[in-house]
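Researcher: I've been going back and forth with a colleague about how serine C-palmitoyltransferase might be arranged in three dimensions. Neither of us has a model we trust, so I'd like an independent prediction. The organism is Phomopsis amygdali, in case that matters for your notes. Sequence below.
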Amino acid sequence: MIRGILQPSIYLIFELSSRAANYPIDFNIIIYFPGMDKKGPRVSTTRIECPDEQSPLLRAVVNLQHSPSCHRPPCVSAAGKFLEAVRMITTHLRVLCCKSQHHSSMSASFEPLSETGRFVKLYVEPMFHWWGANFRLLTTPCLGTVEVVNAVGKRQCVVNGASHNYAGFYAPTTESEELQRLCLELLPVSDSDGVPLLRDAVHAAIAGFFDSDFCFTTSTGYGANYVALPALIDPTRTVVVVDRVCHNSIFTGVYLGRCSEIHKFNHNDMFDLESTLKNLPRNSDQDVIVIVEGLYSMDGDVPPLSALWRLKSEYGFILYCDEAHSFLSIGSTGLGCLQYWNETHQADPVPWNLIDIRTGTLSKAIGGIGGFISGKYFLEERVQRHIKQIQDRDHISVFTSTMVQTLLVIDQPQRISRNLNRLAAISRFCRAELDRYGVYVYGDEIGTPILPVWAGRPSASARLSFALRQAGLLASPVTAPAVPFWESRVRVNLSADYSDADVNSLVNSIVSAVVSMGLCKRRPETFRSNNFKELQKTELEESEESRISSMKIKGLINLASIQLRNDCHSRMPSLGADSARNGHSARSMYGIGAGSARWISGTFPPHLAVERLLARTHGAETAMTYADATIGLASTIAALARPVLGSKRHYVLCPQSATGAIRDGLTLIPPRGKRGVGQQLLQYRSSEELLERTCHLAGRGACFTSIVHANDVHVLTRLIQMAGKCPITVLLYDASNFVNIQHMYSDISVSDSGIGQVQLLVYGSFYKILNLPGGYLVGSEALIRELRYTSRGYMYTTSTPPFVMEMVRGALEASSVAA
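Model: Here is an independent structure prediction for serine C-palmitoyltransferase. You can compare it with whatever you and your colleague have in mind.
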């Protein structure tokens, strides 16, 4: 029973029946009054110890405070939903009326091959890029402002709200530029094992930063969850309970661990989590892992750590936290969600050792490409054992440039603190101003640097992104499945690198764009300029702190280069002076980091140049590149296992002896895709068995996806003959040289007239060919365009830094000339 009395001193008194309460209770009560239009006072969270287990009453005095923020997002009206249906129909018709004029034997009119591909072609691409006007080619570094070019070549300088440069460390300094030059000239190495001195220094620095017992690095932030979760999960005795809005990489890691019992709880709903934990059998031999994120990138909020602490104390689970967006973005010194919570909830702090294991990325706030796993001693052996068993070493290697940048950033605590104080002040100012104008922004108004602005309809989020760009702000639309369908939004990432004028422009751009679309009614209030002292930007002057840090890192680079030259067992770099010059030139032009995934922030000219060169070298229509070759191959295989248009049965054939990324890809195929309606996963022991199975299964309504090692390329012609007129996609993997697809098509066409039914894909690794990070996929325009949206390792991974891609371009050109 709850009885409330509103007192003149704005205190609310509750009496709660609590006969079974033997633990602290956390109140987070929201009260709405008539006529407040979903706005209302917020009741501050209060923690109360029950004085007596048998006491029938628990008395609490809760401070009632008015909050200016809306607690629930607006709703899309029935008329709005009807308009969305109309928009989808008109978009469909417009695409059909504007078919591409490019034709080829491989991909006539770029027709999609699957239902997913058709959805991408008819809705996703045209609305997301707004018919080319919102295409993003970045021609300057991803700093506070960036120059962006659309599909017709129009240039515009905009405030950058699409990058993950939270702490403002992408901007070059004298020390960082000097270190990067030295690193590229002495240590242009992708293999972390080749520079153990530098690798171990990075591990120690990250572990020391979080005061944890161990640290390991991975090639990407996506890869951190890809490695850590399978290491922790025992398929027979581990239960995973995960927030349902967690990163795709987290679910990928859980599935790779073959966890037999997975539960999802509603986002930040501790009652739902507790209900799940209560229903689990109490088993001393069972591990329960609860997974949360430090800062949810689509919602702008943090997990309720005090409630998690109470539940952890009672149920004894392992708390796993992905700090990809919270590392070096929240907390006064960048320590993430736990520091942020204790600083903003001083009446309800949690212990520093609450989190058992963290993962994070070096691709966002740091500005490189990589990830890390850091945690308590009792988990170290599991992670280390799993890493030793990984066959594809590029998957756990970090480019030396990122190692150097990581050491330089972490070793400057004063600069971190200064920048993050500014970032928090920018966030508070922006949220307060947007709230004053009636713009609904998801998340924690205290100061998280992510502003998800409500748009409602998916097409409205795409249109809002374009309107923001016209107003001078680059920001990305977000729709289902990342967020609920009718809660589509545009995400704005803030940066400490903004000038005061940038902050003013950002707020004005959002307000003007939202008002122009009718998503809110502008209030008749004058705009408040951010003339606060805490917002005054400190110039990145040379400081004693950075000078000392730079000297230490120079010493490490020199020692590591000597060790590399003396160790004949190391993988020596194959890159020459030309490659280093290419890297220096591109870094001066495009900066140190890509800033985000390509669909979020945009793409750089070196990425497009590499893809054009790959397509030309392989005789293919187009290409796509991955930051991590292992994850790229696995996610490509998983994405190809989907229903194909016009086929009743889809057979996916793969070699039984395949290991590493191939095996991971098969594991990631959804259960319904492995043996679902119309789809079946089959394995073959030899090329002869592959041919026999294809011949036996070929028939009316069947199609095939065959995964073939590049060494078995000789079976292609016979394989396609066996398939007859059935559609067949062949993925050649582990290519150690450049396979020419056009020549293959020529050979096939001599003996088979059904070439239009054939799709050839070639997957290769820059790591294996050039000793540079990343992988690539070449093939038809239709299939590559689909995979850019369905291959999770591409969609959700920060792209390779543009200066590294320029090094790849130079090395590819040199290799093609030599060939």
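Researcher: What would you highlight for our discussion?
Model: I'd start with this: The first strand starts at residue 2 and ends at 6. After that, consider the following. Confidence is low (pLDDT under 50) at residues 1-70, 100-109.
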